[in-house]
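Quick one: structure for this chain?
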Amino acid sequence: MSKPLVVAIDGPAGAGKSTIARRVASKLGFIYIDTGAMYRAVALWAIRAGVDLDDTLKLEQLARAAQIGFQAGANGITLNGEDVSEAIRAPEMGDAASRVSTFAGVRRALVEKQRAVAASTSVVMEGRDIGTVVFPDAGIKIFLDARPGERATRRTRELQEKGLEADPREIALQIAERDTRDRTRKEAPLLQAPDALYLDSTELSLDEVEERVLKLIRDRTSNGKDHAR
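Got it. Here's what it folds into:
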């Protein structure tokens, strides 16, 4: 059996990573891993347990103890057996996850979980440090980006379609703050890997972005079919 394939998709908030990663994973039959959702899950558990989001030690303990699950062909995520797919998407969870992700101990714990999944099955994994820290040797790396204004518009529309209140100006401010925090944090900052394909999705449709990513995979593999799943 061939070695499992890792497709690493990095980029800032609102660039469309989750949507594209889900679509590509579905086309290939790979496991989709939303690493941001993992940090959101830890943040959710911390908030529910009354743990201060600045308590490094307790947050690391939660990250190591958390049983986080994904399934092939599914978009959901479970935390300790509970489906928390909707709970972690509350607007305030994005900021909480961004704070939690700054701690080295939390990142180490979740990176271990991410690598464990990819050791046994092919994955499409998206986040902010997949191609630089989690899987620096990944054969397929994409850095998906879009102009800040477009990213804010997309995030606002996404929340509104879910029936949630979303102030475009507030969303734009939140994205700007997250960009700054993600790019300047000491532990695994958001960077484009030198060997990653840079893809600006501002003027592209989802279908166009998906096709470009799939073409890259086809060009570098036997269409993903020769890899273990």
